[in-house]
Write a structure and sequence with these properties.
87% of the residues lie in helices and 0% in strands. By secondary structure, the protein is mainly alpha-helical. The protein has one domain (3-275). The protein is globular, with a radius of gyration of 19 Å. The protein starts with a helix and ends with a helix. The model is unreliable at 96-100, 102-112 and 271-278 (pLDDT under 50). It is found in: Membrane. The chain crosses the membrane at residues 6-28, 40-57, 69-86, 183-204, 210-231, 243-264. Its main location: membrane.
Amino acid sequence: MDLLLYIIIFTAIGGVLSVLAAGIFLLLPEPHRNRILPHGISFAIGALLTVSFWGLIPHAFEEAKPDQLQSLSGTILIGILLFFILEKLLIWRHCHSHSCEAHLDDGHDHHDHSHGRRSTGVLIILGDSMHNFVDGVLIAAAFLTDTHLGIVTSLAVAAHEIPQEVGDFAILLESGYSKGKALFYNILASLTTVIGGVLAYFSLEDLHDLLPYFLTLAASSFIYIAVADLIPSLHKKTDIKTSLEQIALILAGVLLIFSLHGLAHDIEIDGPSVAASH
């Protein structure tokens, strides 16, 4: 089979398959989903932060050239600031001609909060798209090294994406998206895996130089979402039982991503490094 066709098929598996597997969450009856959603938010915090600090950022610095290290740190800072500005612009747009303070003064703070949550959904889709694009580059690089390595890498990517995608569905539903739209936008974001793989096939060497910046931008988006949007929502309930549940689920997200990431991280690091030298 042609190598490009392999890359297209397995980047689709690595991206779309993980979304469809996580989409089983959407099949649950609405009362069950509503009970699970707050727990999914806590889990998503642990997953997003672990993907960022244990996977994306270390990977970016390992792939970077020595003269890129300082600029990569700056990219994380700039990325967080850019996502703050983007979210602010999204909220302003949804407020239309009324200021958010006016909504609060008139007792309509639910309008502001709902659009603030929707902006979080937009950010998670953008961050996921960048992350998936990088996954596509990594899968293609592995295939260019060895076909079997490419297959294993795509399956590893799908495996460590599934728990993160479950968290993403929880965030999108909490942000006001319907089940259909949450699934549609997540699948759309997953298709950037295929785009990354195809572009890498034709110009891997050029993309390899930009790879660390894609990784740090994806990380900055996930960090911003977890810290600025999701963590504050957990402070609305302060009773001991709920707080302990939140902590436990955050740790569960950390541990699951940590354990699943081990194999994928080792394979992905080896793949691009060898392929880039071809």
